[in-house]
Structures are given as C-alpha cells and as structure tokens.
Design goal:
single chain, mainly alpha, Arc Repressor Mutant, subunit A, 3-stranded antiparallel beta sheet
Length: about 100
Amino acid sequence: MALVLKNVEHYPTLETVLMVEDFIQKNSPSGELTKYQIWTRLPRKMMYQTYCVIFDYLLTTKIAVDRVGKVGWVWNPELVRKYLKRKDLTWRPPKKKQK
C-alpha cells in the first residue's frame, strides 16, 4: 500500500503521531475500537483530516483494520527478531521481473 500525499490543510507533528500510536497500542491492541471511536477518545483533540493523515500512515506500518472496521495493533519488533533468528524459517525477497 503506497502512501498518497493529499491536499492537506494541516500536517501532524511528530508529537501528535506518537500520541495516536501510543493510544492505539494501549487501548485497541486486539481490535476493540473503530477508526472513529479512536478519534473521539484521543487524549487531545485534533482535526479529523489531520487524524486521517496519521491513520493512513499507521495503516502502512503498524495497524490493521478488519472487515467490520475494528483497528488492531500489529507491529511487534520483538516477535520479528525472534523469527529472524530461527534457522528453520527463511525469507526470500520477491523475484525481479525480467524485461
């Protein structure tokens, strides 16, 4: 999924992005809340458009949304390190297309 830059009135600060990340990680780790519910429960208020920019970014990296719209935290670097150390698992990069 590619991040598409939109005509945005106000881009979020790093502090705001981290606040949203932290809130989702602590309050919706296994998908109890929807996108709108998260926005209404954030510790600080922000424009919905700004929140959507942050949400779109997090969708490309750290969160997932299921069929019914529930948001869950999926980023787990410790688990990734654990699996990378296992000898019985391998990772192959995608094959390059020949022209």
